[in-house]
Structure formats: structure tokens, C-alpha cells
Amino acid sequence: MQIKNNLATINQQISQYCELAQRNSSSVSLLAVSKTKPVTDILAAYQAGQIAFGENYVQEGVEKIQYFNEQNIQIEWHFIGPLQSNKTKLVAEHFDWMQTLDREKIATRLNEQRPHYKQPLNVLIQINISDESSKSGIQPEEMLNLAKHIQNLPHLRLRGLMAIPAPTEDISEQEQAFNQMKQLFTELQQAFPNTQIDTLSMGMSDDMASAIKCGSTMVRIGTAIFGKRDYANQP
Ligand SMILES: *Cc1c(COP(=O)(O)O)cnc(C)c1O
């Protein structure tokens, strides 16, 4: 019941932030981040109408995907964690989206390993927008080169950009990073017209309002849906 209520609250907040930004509420989708959470929690969210879920750890994600496949439950699975090149095959074979693409080599491998009977893997380029200490994401100047590389790979479909800005409670700092992302997103759309570049994944439990104000089309929410995470059982 808690998860269902939390989801209702989040969806209400999304609508409200969209209204404030004079955006259509259907222009922002919700990714439920279920890392470290059991399949029973995912099932509760699914039964409350949630369709897209995000996982950070390959092995954990694949186990959950297989569980729901066996139940014949159709979920849209997004990989949102750092990916080592020796684990690309599992992502290519099991996930629907890969949001943290930041290297040509990983793109090439995912393309080679994507089963041909499946739809192309939807990918987002991860931009390192403000967190200098983070190893994840490329610098904004590198975006177009990586995008060109991806556009030549038939089993990947470039859908847009993703970022995890350095956490801050300062609203103007949040907005600065998100506005930069929106600019890059527009640049990417203009560089590749007539393609399906429609997704700007940014905003988490603590900065969702700013992200939506600045043009996010997908917010990734974990804690506010499932409660605090317990990492004790994680590798
Ligand atoms: C964990 C995680 C989230 C969700 O964070 P919350 O603060 O729990 O909402 C979103 N995006 C990514 C990439 C994450 O790893």
C-alpha cells in the first residue's frame, strides 16, 4: 500500500511541476529506480500502474528481468549504472534501455551483442555535467562525436541524454546544470533531425522540481517510491 501511495504522490508532483512549467504532464515520464529492492516491491509498483524500472547492477537486474519474464509480466527495463565492458553482453541481451553510455567501445560491443530478434537497444549518452569527481559520463564537447558513432550502429537507437549532476540543495545550481543539459539536448536534436531523439533523463528524488522546470522528459525516482535503500547485501 505504501508503494502505491508513494507512486500516486510522485505522479501528482510531476503533474504539478509540469503545470508550473506550462508543460503537458504527459511530457515527463517516471522511471522507478528499483536497485537493491526485492521483486515484491517491483510487483507492487507494477500493479499500481508503473511500467518502467531502472537497475544499476547488471547481475541483480538480469535476475529480476528473468523473474518477471517467467511470470509473463511485461516491464520496460532501463540500465542506469556504470557498465564495465565485460558485462555489456548481459545488458544487450536483457535490457530495453541503456542510459549510461559514455564510450565508443561500449557502444560497439552493445551493438554487436544485441540479439537481432529484439528491437534495437534504446540508448542515452551520459554527460558529466557538473560532477568533476565522477568518472561517469563524457564531457559536453565529446557528445557529438559519440552520437555520430552510435548513429552508425543499427542495433542501437540513440534516444537522447542522461545526467546525474553533483547533488546540491542550491536551486540555482541545480537549474544551471539542468539548463546546460537542455541546451545540449537541443543541439543533439538539431544535429540529427528526423531521428527519434526525444528523451532527456534528469531529475531524482531531491531535484525533480528543477529538472522538470528545465525540460526533463524522464525523472528517475527511487527513494521517494520504495523508501531508503539498504546496501548491506550488495556486492
Ligand atoms: C539510485 C539512482 C536514482 C534514484 O535516486 P533516488 O535519490 O533514490 O531517487 C536515479 N538515477 C540513478 C542513476 C541512480 O543510480
TrEMBL record:
What Pfam families does this protein map onto? Answer: Ala_racemase_N
| Modification N6-(pyridoxal phosphate)lysine, positions | K35
Could you say which cofactors this protein requires? pyridoxal 5'-phosphate
Give the GO molecular function terms.
pyridoxal phosphate binding
What the entry lists under InterPro entries is as follows: Ala_racemase_N, PLP-binding_barrel, PyrdxlP_homeostasis
Keywords (alphabetical) are: Pyridoxal phosphate
Ranges where the Alanine racemase N-terminal domain occurs? 13-229
Which HAMAP family does the record match to this protein? Answer: PLP_homeostasis
Its job: Pyridoxal 5'-phosphate (PLP)-binding protein, which is involved in PLP homeostasis.
Protein family: Belongs to the pyridoxal phosphate-binding protein YggS/PROSC family.
Q: What is this protein called?
A: Pyridoxal phosphate homeostasis protein
Q: Which organism is it from?
A: Canicola haemoglobinophilus
